[in-house]
Design brief:
Helices cover 36% and strands 20% of the residues. The protein is of the alpha/beta class and 533 residues long. The strands form three sheets. It has a nine-stranded mixed β-sheet with strand order 16-15-14-13-9-12-11-10-17, with helices on both faces. The chain has a six-stranded parallel β-sheet with strand order 5-4-3-6-7-8, with helices on both faces. Strands 1-2 form a two-stranded antiparallel ribbon. β14 and β15 form a beta hairpin. α11 packs parallel to α14. The longest helix has 26 residues. The chain is globular and about 80 Å long. The N terminus is likely disordered. It binds NADPH dihydro-nicotinamide-adenine-dinucleotide phosphate and 6-O-phosphono-beta-D-glucopyranose (BG6). 6-O-phosphono-beta-D-glucopyranose binds next to α10.
Amino acid sequence: MGTRASVREATAARPEAGGAMAGQELSRSEVCGMLREELSQDGAFLQGQPHVFIILGASGDLARKKIYPTVWWLFRDGLLPDDTRVVGFARSPLTVELIRQQTLPYLKTCPEDSSRLGAFFSRQSFVRGQYGERDAFARLDAHLRGLPGGARAHRLFYLALPPSVYVPVTRHIRQACMGEGWNRVIVEKPFGRDLASSDALSLHLGGLFREDQIYRIDHYLGKEMVQNLMVLRFGNRIFGPIWNRDNVACVVLTFKEPFGTEGRGGYFDDFGIIRDVMQNHLLQMLCLVAMEKPASTDPDDVRDEKVKVLKCIGPVELDDVVLGQYVGNPDGPPEAQKGYLDDPTVPPGSTTATFAAAILRVANERWDGVPFVLRCGKALNERKAEVRLQFREVPGDIFGRQCKRNELVVRVQPDEAVYTKMMTKKPGMFFNPEESELDLTYGNRYKDVKLPDAYERLILDVFCGNQMHFVRSDELREAWRIFTPLLHTIEERGEKPIPYLYGSRGPAEADELLKRAGFLYEGTYRWVNPHKL
Ligand code: NDP
Ligand code: BG6
C-alpha cells in the first residue's frame, strides 16, 4: 500500500494508550512508532534532514489555540521529523517563555509529558518584526540560517495572520526567506472576499510560489468523516449503483453551531455565514459527495474531479436562498438572550446573515435534477455537521404506503457516525414495515480510538508534501464563481435576513426551502441508542 495512505489510515485509527485498533491492542507509542517508520520508509522525512516550522502571527489566537498545540501533539507523538525546530514571528515582544505560558492551557498535557514538553520548547525560538518590513524578514532568514541545519533545512511557513497582511508577508518570504531545502506556505481562509479579490490573491501567490508550494487550508478536509466520504463511496460496491439521480431525491449538507459570534463579531460581520462556512466547508463536502471517481488517489486526480463537478454548478440564485440572523431569546439561558446585534463587536443595524440555506444544482449526467441543499448557521439548537442523502420512494409499493424514504447520513460531528435510515419488518408477530437503521457509530465500533484533530492530519500532510486535502487555485476560483453573484446581489440590495431565535432550528422559511427542494421530513423516525438501553 502507498505509505502515505497507510499512515493516514493508522493516524485515523490511532488509539489512546491501551486502546484497541481493529481488535489489536496497541499503545499510542506503538501506533505512532509505526506511523513514523512508514513516514521514514516513504522518504517523506529524509533522515537527518532538518525542518523548520515558522509560525507567522505567533502572538495571535489561531497560533495560540490551534497551531502551537497541533505542532506539540505531532511532536509528542513522534510524528514530526527528528530535527524539527519551531520559530515564532510576530510584532509583539514575545519570548519562548511567554509563548509557553500562553499556549500551555491549550496543549492538553499530562504529567508524563513533562520531559517531552521541555524538549518541545527547547527547540523553539522567536523573532520579532513588522509584517511590512523586508528587513524583519531578512532577520528572520538570518535566524533560520543560524539554526542547526542552516539554510538547507526544509521550511514550512504558516500564515496565522489576518488576510490584510498576506500580500506583504508572502512577498517578503519569497524575497528574503527562501531556504535551500523545500519551502512550503500554509495559508488560512479567507482566501479573498469574492471572485475578483480571490483571483488577485491567487495571482499574487502564483507569482511568488509554485502551486505545489501553496497549501490552502480548509480544515473540514482534515476531518475524519469528510475524508471518509471517498472511502465510503469508492471502497464499497453497495453505494456506487445508487449514487445518482435515479435513486437520490435530494442531498442536504448541514453545519450547525449552538453559539453565536460572541466577541468575534468584528471578523464575522465582514464575511457572513456564506463566506465563513458555506462557500468553503459545505461546498468542499458537496464536491466529495458529488464528484466522479478519480483515476487514482493522487492529489491532483482527486482535485481534478472536484473542479469538474464545481464546473457543473451554476451561480446560486437569490430565489433559492434563505438568509437569517439570530435574535435574543428572552426565555433562553443568559447567553441566548443576546442577539447578533447585541454583540458589541457587531456594527449597529448590520444585515449580515448568521444563517443561510441555499439550493445548488449539479447539471451533469449523474445529478441533473437532484437539488443539493446547503444549510449553515450560528446560534442554532445544536452542534452538528452532516451529509444526508434522501432516496426516492420504492417504486411499486406493496405495503400500503407505510414505507418511508431511506436516508444515508454521514455524521461529521459531533459523535461521528454513518447510518442508513431503512425499513425493516416490525420484529415479532407482525408483518408490517417499521423504520429502523443500519448504524455505524464510531464511539461504539471504534471504542477508545482517539480521532486526531483535523489540523494534525493537515499539518502532517504538509510535512509529507501531500496536497490531496488542500484547496487548489482552480477549485477556489470555481467556488467563488458559484457564490460571488449571489453575495454581490445580497450586498447591493441590502437584503434583510429573517430573524430567528437563538437556540432554534433557524427560520421556518428554511424548512419551506427544503420542502421545495423535495426533501420529505416525516417526523416519525426515532433513534434508540442501543448503548443506552
Ligand atoms: P430525523 O428524521 O429526526 O431528521 C431528519 C432530518 O430532518 C434532519 O436533517 C433534520 O434537520 C430535519 N428536520 C428536523 N425537523 C424538521 C422539520 N420540522 N422540518 C423539516 N426538517 C426537519 O432523523 P435524524 O437522522 O436526524 O435522526 C434523529 C436523531 O437520531 C438524530 O439526533 C441523530 O443524530 C440520531 N441518530 C444517531 C445515530 C448514531 O449516532 N449512530 C443513528 C441514527 C440516528 P435539522 O438538523 O434541521 O433538525
Ligand atoms: C471556521 C469558521 O472556519 O469553522 C468558524 O470560521 C466556525 O466560524 C468553525 O466556528 C467551525 O469549525 P469546527 O471544526 O468547530 O466545526
